[in-house]
Amino acid sequence: MATFSEELRKAREEKNFSLAEISRITRINLKYLEALDQGLFDILPQAYIRAFIREYAMAVGLSPADILQKYDIFVTGKYAAGPTLAPSSGWMTGTVPVLHERAHDEEAVPTEEFLVKQRSMRTIVIIASIIVLCSLILAYVANYIWVSHSGPPLRETPFQDVVREKESRPQIPARPDSVHAAADGVKLLPGSSDSLTLSIRSSTVVWMSIVRDTGSAVEMLLEPQERRTLRSKHRFIVTTGNAGGAAFQVNGKDIGVLGKTGIVLHNIVITADGVKK
Fold it and tell me: Which tens digit of pLDDT belongs to each residue from 113-127?
């Protein structure tokens, strides 16, 4: 091994290259180049020795094929009669053993196989990423189609925003006959001979808008413990800024609050059968 390493080192020194410069040119770790220089092949990664030797030889101007052939002679010990090598190579003249079964030596370099496998892995990763991305896009489109066909969801608006919107609107004076006093102190909103009665009792300040059948909306801002009663023929459509701020009764049947406190509900239908969401 010493003669083999000396030939590489001699060629490097003739070109005035340091091991650090060879490392920069070949991108081989400096400790591996030092091992090649000293003939310490046992500490080198066996899968990459031939690639290291070829790169080293090319960097110092030697023939990679000749250098690899000499390395095979040292390592395997499989000899056969071969041509005489030139004296300039640093070897003795005469019959020099050559290695059989190395006709395609350059094609069997482990590093090339590694690079091919690495490129294959990158291709697989890219294809898998594209498949995952397409799956996510399809899932998003399917969800969008399902939501768009299932009808708009209930909108939830903070109660404070509803109150501010209500207060910012111009107040329209109520007509004198818009509210009638009942015997029990409950305020009754006008209606015709209707069969449906909706009673409302607030537990806190709450704004709501109520449409009777297909008529116009009646808006109200109730104070805590305030009661209202409305009459209709078939149904009421309720929008409230605080679903838990008032309890409801239909024809004396208690249906309770429409939802959680602070939640805004839109277009909740109330009939004689109760709440239809």
Answer: 677 777 888 899 999
